[in-house]
Structures are given as structure tokens and as C-alpha cells.
Amino acid sequence: MLSAFIENLNADSTRVYSPKPYFLLCGGPVSSIADPHPISLRDAFLRAEAGVAIKNAEIVQIEEIQEYFEKDCPYKDLVEFERDIAQISDMVLLFSESPGSFTELGSFSSYREIHEKLLVVVQSKYLTKSSFILKGPVTFLRRKYKNSVFSITNGQVGIKGPSFSSVKPEVLLSVLKSPINERLLESKGRTTFQKNRFSHRCKLYIAFLKEFSVLKDDELKVLFDAFGVKLSDALLDRIAFCCKCVRWSGASQAGFDRVHFALNGNEAAKFELNGEYADKLRRRVEIRQHWIQTDPARIDAHAEAVGL
Fold it and tell me: Which domain of life is it from (predicted)?
């Protein structure tokens, strides 16, 4: 089935898409649910249910991804993991308001696949004097992207003194909703598959799983090779792990093999195929029937993993 798909494929025409939009949210500390007042701008933004109001996107915070602490995590440090998660997001929204977020600003600004969709929200007071933030990342971002840095005054959102407890979440959201939508339009990425982009590799991975239902490691390597991507074990581990962390995919075991499957979400690619293979519904039905007849264990492993 794989060879027939590859033989009838026009790989150069492939377009890739995010199967499930999400924002990576970074910034200052976040309070507990029991705390009645926000302790940072990021905390106030979270309280405003921003994900529902803006593009119905899921909000992802790197600190909440518990899979990072599991034994099968392929990452040795959190910085590398956060960088990969940022690359596959629809937007990185960074409240530059603390020493940790200042470090993230410098790190994110050095990676094209991140800074092209990065929106920095910063208090005006940090931009009124010579500083690393102003002279470094902020100047760089502003030169490349008109809508990448948005400053707010204390009076706009209700900040009083050094505390954020008086910030009104709904007011902060109303101030930021338009800048976020403008940045989304500005940063809308290219969809034609580019083999060196980590985000495109992840989307292609999901597209293969949508197409073939359940795939083993070696099968994925064959498919990626048709697109000019040499998929090492380490790279496949990173792709599979990141997609699992943002609920794009899952994995299980069937015999000696790891098997991968997509979770609910939109299509992740548009493939152009020739002849009878151009009928997407027909070929997917045939592929699934092929697995049921020749390798039912992989179908069972998928069903049991997702509780079917």
C-alpha cells in the first residue's frame, strides 16, 4: 500500500496544515485556582478564557505538559523541548514581564520558525530606556514584522504599582484581541511543504497517520523519504513526542513494533495523487481494509489505546 501511494504521489504539490490550532502562552508566574487575584499579565490573560474568544484555539503552557517528565521523553532539557513546541504552534504569545520571560524572548527571537509567529506583549515602561530588551530582540522583531511587539500602559489594563492584582482579565483581553488577530494574519505561514521545517515535518507526520490509520516506525521512514526527509530514530521520537503532547497523535505497541495514530482533528495535508488514488475516501477505505486483513493487531492496538 505504501509503494502504490508513493508511486502515484506528486510530493512537490503537498500542502500542510495545523490539525488543531493552539497558542503557546509564555510569561510571568501563574497563580493557583484558589487565588482571587492575578499575579502577572499572563495569569490575568488565562483568567479571561482567551482561547474561546480568539480563534477557538487551545492555550498550551510548557509547564503544564506533564509528558516531559515521563521516562520516554526524548528531550534532555526543557529549553529544547519548548523550542520544538513553539515551532509547531499557530502563535507564540509571550508576556515579557519577568526574568524567565526575558530569557525566552532572547531564545525565541533567534529561531526563524518561532520569531515569524511570535507576539510579544510588554509594558511600555520597559521600552522607554536603553536595555537589552529594547536594543536587542524588540528592535529585531519590529524591523522584521510590523505587528510583532505590542506595548501596553499600566492605565490601560489597571496595573497599580508593582502588583498585578488589580488587572481586570476581561479588559486585558479586549486590549489584546485585535493585536493578536492582526499578528495571526501577518504570521500566516506558507503551506507548501518545506522539508527543513520542524513544524511541517510534524504536520506531514499527522497527515500520514490520517491517510494510513496506523503506521509503524519503519513505514513512516519510507513515507518521509519520499519527501526528501531522512527520518532518524531521534527525529521521529521528537516528532511523535511533540505531537502527542499537543494531542495531535498517540502511540501504542503491536508486537515488537511501536504504532502511531492520529487523534481527532482536521486534515493535516492535501496530497495530490494520480488516477484512482486521487479519490481520498476510496483509498483510505482500501488502506484500512488492507490492515484489517493483513495486520489486524495494529488496528486492535489503536482501538484499545483510544478506548474504542
Answer: Bacteria
H or E stretch at 200: helix 198-212
Q: Is the Cα torsion angle 244, 248, 253, 257 positive or negative in sign? A: negative
Tens digits of residue pLDDT in 207-230: 999 999 999 999 999 999 999 999
Cα 85 from Cα 92, distance rounded (Å):
10
Helix (H) or strand (E) holding 183: helix 169-186
Contact 267, 208 (CB under 8 A): no
Where do we find the cell 527571537? Answer: 109
Continuous H helices in the chain: 2-7, 41-47, 50-53, 78-87, 99-108, 112-115, 132-133, 139-144, 154-157, 169-186, 198-212, 217-225, 233-245, 280-294, 296-306
Instruction: State phi, psi for 241 to the nearest 5 degrees.
Output: -70, -45
Full set of structural domains in the chain with CATH? 1-17+192-306 (1.10.10.10), 22-187 (3.40.50.450)
Amino acid letter for position 153: T
Bridge partners, residue 92, by sequence? 24, 118
Residue 86: CB atoms within 10 A of its CB come to 26
**pTM across the whole model:** 0.92
Give pLDDT tens digits for 149-196: 999 999 999 998 888 999 999 999 999 999 998 998 888 878 999 999
Determine contact, residues 97/28, Cβ cutoff 8 Å: yes
